[in-house]
Write a structure and sequence with these properties.
Elements (H helix, E strand, L loop, with lengths): L6 H16 L9 E5 L9 H9 L5 E4 L4 H6 L6 E6 L4 H6 L1 H11 L9 E8 L7 H20 L7 E7 L3 E3 L7 E2 L4 H14 L3 E4 L2 H7 L3 H7 L7 E2 L6 E2 L2 H15 L7 E6 L14 H16 L3 E2 L2 E2 L4 E4 L58 E4 L5 H12 L21 H15 L13 E4 L16
Parallel strand pairs: 1-2, 1-14, 2-3, 3-4, 4-5, 5-8, 8-11, 11-14
Antiparallel strand pairs: 6-7, 9-10, 12-13, 15-16
Helix pairs in contact: 5-6, 6-7, 12-13
């Protein structure tokens, strides 16, 4: 038994913990960032963007360059800034320490600390360029930039990293088998050894959207969108993964652990889902983009972490703040923006400090939506199979923080003891606990929203307006 003088402290700690669990938005969401690309001719002024960002939960912004107007506009906002040296800058930065010094003098020192620059990324997906000369120059460039920061007394305050495509992994499925491609292994080890010394994270770009495009089955879509699904068991570790994001990030974790870099943190430099695409780009839609980004943000806010990194959220930069209308390639490349040039939301994922997410244009289930403010419940659709209902029941009741006690024998909702009745209660419970986001009443298109309260006898279904 603890000494009595510790009991008030323990009670106070417990109270703080409960407050944190019930009011997660009161804490800093420093793990939510956004990419601010500029391959466009219709972007709003930097000052307007800075004001927009301050109205959201976004705490960090990643730039692909070092636009002084944007860096200056973000001064005194408290928003962390990642700036980038382009691939074309690498040869000069690598060959001449003075060039690195000039780069830091031009792009960091005039703005820091009023503009909270936290990281410099040197190059983007360099190892996948195939340019062996450029690859060999990457580490010297990073070292010279770090030395220039050290000389300016910013070592440890502004860190140096580089950004990698997920293709640096030779294996990623199952996550426990994650390993770096052998052709990049020596370069990766050298980069990671440097990053261990300066305490910077490895930055990667996981995109479940592309995983779905290569395997466009309904169950894969649910897995990619953080929606209820049967999960995928890692044959190596026995861990059941419930979403593609965790699986991809943990594959990187396994690759790092496998070569002795368990102490290197992971940063998600880009991830997102397009709201529009060409006819052959399966899955690109407003509903799916809203579901992916909205559920990803909720996942980060839960602080659940990944199976291999539980209890903390990986710093994640959503792609992207705005569409970039001058980008080449398929339509999806120009359709990742969370906001429009007029500063209105493309769709609502709950980033606004005053928003709890709006009604979608249509619910993914196609079941229609009651009017805003009207109470509503999530119920199974007629025709849902027993296998689908069982998968949904298992998913919901396996979630941390979901109490399926009323469905146990003797519980208020145990009778009638049928799969349909139990699944209905569980589906609604999940929907209500997910801030009543309509896309969380989808369950692989087996559920719909209803304005009819399904409560019966002593079994009360949680419900509420939007």
């Amino acid at each position: 038994m603890p000494p009595t003088f510790l009991l008030p402290l323990a009670a106070a700690f417990l109270l703080l913990l409960l407050l944190h669990l019930h009011f997660p938005f009161a804490s800093s969401q420093s793990y939510i960032g956004v990419n601010y690309g500029q391959v466009a001719d219709n972007l709003p002024p930097p000052a307007a963007t800075a004001k927009l960002l301050q109205s959201t939960a976004v705490q960090k912004v990643r730039l692909y360059g070092a636009d002084p107007a944007i860096i200056r506009a973000l001064a005194n906002t408290g928003i962390g800034i990642v700036i980038g040296a382009a691939n074309g800058d690498i040869p000069a930065l690598a060959s001449d320490p003075n060039s690195a010094g000039q780069w830091v003098n031009s792009n960091v020192l005039p703005f820091y600390p009023a503009s909270s620059i936290v990281l410099v990324t040197v190059g983007n997906e360099v190892l996948l360029s195939g340019d062996q000369n450029l690859i060999s120059q990457l580490l010297p460039a990073m070292q010279n930039v770090q030395n220039a920061l050290n000389s300016a007394s910013l070592g440890g305050k502004v860190k140096v990293s580089t950004v990698h495509s997920m293709s640096i992994l030779g294996r990623s499925d199952p996550p426990s088998s994650g390993s770096f491609d052998s052709s990049h292994l020596d370069a990766m080890k050298a980069l990671l050894q440097f990053q261990r010394g300066v305490g910077s994270p490895i930055a990667v770009n996981p995109y479940p959207f592309f995983a779905y495009q290569s395997d466009p089955r309904p169950e894969t879509l649910a897995f990619c969108l953080f929606q209820p699904n049967a999960g995928r068991v890692d044959s190596g570790s026995g861990i059941k993964y419930m979403n593609m994001f965790d699986a991809q990030v943990d594959a990187v974790r396994s690759a790092l652990n496998g070569i002795g870099f368990k102490d290197i943190d992971i940063m998600v430099a880009e991830t997102g889902w397009p709201y529009k695409g060409d006819p052959n780009e399966v899955g690109a839609s407003v509903e799916n983009a809203r579901a992916y980004n909205g559920n990803l943000i909720a996942h980060l806010r839960s602080m659940a972490g990944t199976p291999l990194m539980p209890g903390k959220s990986v710093d994640t930069y959503l792609f992207a703040l705005y569409d970039e209308d001058l980008k080449p390639g398929p339509s999806s490349e120009r359709s990742f923006g969370l906001f429009k040039p007029d500063l209105s939301m493309t769709y609502d994922v709950g980033l606004s400090k005053t928003s709890t997410t709006s009604q979608p244009e249509k619910t993914p289930s196609g079941g229609g939506s009651p009017a805003a403010g009207q109470e509503r419940w999530c119920v199974p659709k007629a025709g849902a199979s027993d296998a689908q209902l069982q998968a949904s029941l298992d998913y919901v009741c396996g979630q941390q923080g979901i109490d399926c006690g009323p469905l146990q024998p003797g519980g208020a909702c145990f009778e009638p003891n049928t799969l349909a009745s139990h699944a209905a209660y569980a589906m609604n419970l999940y929907f209500q606990r997910s801030d009543k986001r309509p896309w969380n009443c989808d369950f692989s298109q087996t559920a719909a929203l209803s304005s009819n309260n399904p409560s019966y006898n002593g079994c009360n279904y949680p419900g509420g307006g939007t």
